[in-house]
Each structure stands twice: as structure tokens, then as C-alpha cells.
Specification:
CATH topology of one domain: Aspartate Aminotransferase, domain 2
CATH superfamily of one domain: Type I PLP-dependent aspartate aminotransferase-like (Major domain)
Largest sheet: 8 strands, mixed
Radius of gyration: 20 Å
Order of helices and strands: HHEHEHEEEHEEEHHHEEHEH
Strand content: 15-25%
Helix content: 25-40%
CATH class of one domain: Alpha Beta
Structural class: alpha/beta
Length: 365
């Protein structure tokens, strides 16, 4: 097994992917909510978290997901984690054994093969086309237990999986008896209509584990994520989380529950949805104007990045090195194995961190 990492080694400069605009976050509200719960009057919040996390936050997340993502769940099915990495690690530990295989999209987000490999799992790549992961026509090794999919906005190609492919994927997972990890990546930020219902909301077999994070909607360092597990797995996941990780930070969980209940979370998403939409429009316009047919851009009007595929071979490393000297970071996709049609031709261009006034100059490539 081999995969080409595309992680966060360089985290500054224009176009860093997967980073939200922390300057736009209402820290004055967040500070007030944290202060509300961080005091001697709330010593119960100074200990460890049990039962999958603070009950108020689990209830707030369940209510939000039912409305915004058509996720069918009760608070008991929600496990609070420190983000996507811990969520995936927990799934790997509970749903597979060392030597089993996890299928990831190819290309994929670098976190998945990294965490699975660290857990002793083999990693295989599933075929991705214009409709997302094509599990039906991908090779499924004999000891495969898990498949990971990002149907809302595939990272990095930006493909949004249509309803027909979602139903097909669930049917194929049933045929192979696989657990499905749905990473609802960038689901909050869709700019041309309402998002499709979650894969979890379509699941009638109790095999989909839904994972989410607040890093994109709030700010990267918040380090708060969650799992929505089938009801028959909730006790096992809750016990494992408590025994393996001894989670705490209950005052932060309480503040986040208030942030959601009081409407600040939804208000911030609405505000940033309009802002990010304008940034993506500017980036697309500038790239098309400057490069024309030389580059093909992902079509999805969603998320915090644009996937750029060059139509002709370029000196990949030379472009990356020159861009760094100009303060521009070009993200590279993570492949489970080299794909000749794509290697040395693709970049991931994030626009979440750069405001319009800063984005305009660096868009003149």
C-alpha cells in the first residue's frame, strides 16, 4: 500500500485549502459564552465528559442536524470528539480489526489514509467520477470493513453526489456488508440551492456513521467534532470514547451548545455563506480570465476550495516552488496510488482564509 500525502505541511499564504476565515468569527460572543460556564459556580464542567459528551450539546447538535441535513438521530447517538481525526480513529478501532481494509475515495482528504494506516488497516482507493464515489465499479478487497465517502462536496474534486448515486452506494455497501463513514464535508456552504439530504438520512440498514466538525463553520482551532452512530452502536462508541480518550473541555461544549441554541451558529453560517460565495466567484472569474482553457475548474458551487485540473502537462514542482516564493500555497491532492490522468496536473485552491480585498491581488496569476 502507498499513498501520496497532501497534508497541512505549509499552512500560510493564499489558497491554503480547508481553512475558515477566523477573522470573521464573532469571538466576542464566544468569549462571553465561555465565561458563562468557566467559573467556580460550574465546577461540574471541570471534570471529564461521560456518555459521549455533554447532554446539552448532543441535544443541540441532534436538533440542528435534523433541520439542516435531514439526519435521523437522537441525542444518545451523538458522540462528541476532538475533530475528524479522532472520529475516524474511533471508527477504525470499533468497526475493523488490524489487517482489514478501508476504502477511501481516490483522491481523498489526506486525513483518512493517514489515520487508517496508523490503526493498522490497509487502505484501498475507490473510483471517483463525475458523480462521486463509484463503489459498484471499484475493487473491494476480501477483508474490507469500511468505506468512506464525502457526498456533499467531495474533497478535493468538488463533486456533489446525486441522489441516484447515493442510493446505489448504499445498495452496494449492503451487498458487501460494509460500514459507511459519511464525512459531510463543507455541507454548510452550498451556494446554488439547498443541499441534498444526508446519506445517513437515506440509510435504512443502520450502517452509516455520520461525522461532522465545527472547524469550517467556526474556526480551525476549536477542535470540536462529532459522530452520529446507529442506535445499536451508541453504547459501544460512548464507552470506547470515555475509556480511550478521557475527553473533557465540558465548558467549551456548554458554550457551543449555547452558541447553537441562541442562534449564533446559524447566523454566522448565513453570513459566511454569502461571503464565501463571493470569494469563489472572484476566484473562478480570475482563473478563467487568466488561464482560459489551460485549466478546468470543479463545477460545484459549494465549499471553501476550487479544484483546478490543468489540460496540459505542467512542471508541477516548479509551479509549487515559484508559488511559495510569491506567498501562494497550492494544495496537492492525496492519492492512494498515482492516477496517470491526474497526477502532476491538479491543485486545490482554498479561498476561505482570504477576504476579497486580499484575494483580488493574488488572483492575478
Amino acid at each position: 500500500m502507498s499513498f501520496l500525502p497532501g497534508g497541512m505541511g505549509h499552512t500560510t499564504g493564499a489558497f491554503v485549502p480547508g481553512v475558515a476565515d477566523s477573522q470573521a468569527f464573532p469571538f466576542h460572543i464566544w468569549k462571553r459564552l465561555i465565561a458563562r460556564h468557566l467559573s467556580k459556580g460550574n465546577l461540574a464542567l471541570s471534570g471529564y465528559a461521560n456518555h459521549g459528551g455533554l447532554s446539552q450539546l448532543r441535544e443541540a447538535i441532534a436538533g440542528y442536524l435534523k433541520i439542516s441535513r435531514s439526519v435521523n438521530c437522537e441525542p444518545a447517538q451523538i458522540i462528541i470528539t476532538s475533530g475528524t481525526h479522532q472520529s475516524v480513529d474511533l471508527c477504525a478501532r470499533l468497526l475493523a480489526d488490524v489487517g482489514d481494509t478501508a476504502i477511501v475515495e481516490n483522491p481523498c482528504h489526506w486525513a483518512f489514509p493517514t489515520v487508517f494506516a496508523a490503526s493498522g488497516l490497509e487502505v484501498a482507493g475507490g473510483n471517483v467520477n463525475d458523480y462521486g464515489l463509484d463503489l459498484e465499479n471499484s475493487y473491494v478487497p476480501p477483508r474490507t470493513k469500511i468505506v468512506v465517502v464525502t457526498p456533499s462536496h467531495h474533497y478535493p474534486t468538488g463533486v456533489v453526489m446525486p441522489l441516484s448515486r447515493r442510493l446505489e452506494l448504499l445498495q452496494s455497501a449492503r451487498a458487501h456488508n460494509l460500514w459507511v463513514i459519511e464525512d459531510d464535508y463543507d455541507s454548510e456552504f452550498r451556494y446554488d440551492g439547498a443541499p441534498l439530504p444526508s446519506l445517513q438520512g437515506l440509510d435504512n440498514d443502520g450502517r452509516v456513521i455520520y461525522i461532522g466538525t465545527f472547524s469550517k463553520a467556526m474556526f480551525a482551532g476549536v477542535r470540536m467534532g462529532f459522530l452520529v452512530v446507529p442506535s445499536h452502536l451508541s453504547k459501544a462508541f460512548s464507552r470506547a470514547s470515555t475509556k480511550l480518550f478521557r475527553p473533557g473541555a465540558l465548558h467549551l461544549q456548554a458554550a457551543l451548545a449555547d452558541f447553537i441554541y441562541e442562534g449564533h451558529f446559524s447566523q454566522h453560517i448565513r453570513k459566511m455563506r454569502g461571503e464565501y460565495s463571493s470569494r469563489q466567484d472572484l476566484l473562478r472569474f480570475s482563473l478563467e480570465k487568466s488561464l482560459g482553457d489551460i485549466v478546468r475548474l470543479s463545477s460545484a458551487r459549494a465549499g471553501l476550495h476550487v479544484f483546478a485540473q490543468f489540460s496540459a502537462d505542467v512542471n508541477y514542482q516548479s509551479v509549487i516552488n515559484e508559488s511559495k516564493r510569491e506567498g501562494i500555497f497550492l494544495g496537492t491532492p492525496c492519492f492512494v496510488k498515482n492516477i496517470p490522468a491526474l497526477e502532476n496536473r491538479c491543485f486545490v485552491l482554498g479561498f476561505g482564509e482570504y477576504r476579497l480585498r486580499k484575494l483580488r491581488p493574488v488572483c492575478n496569476l
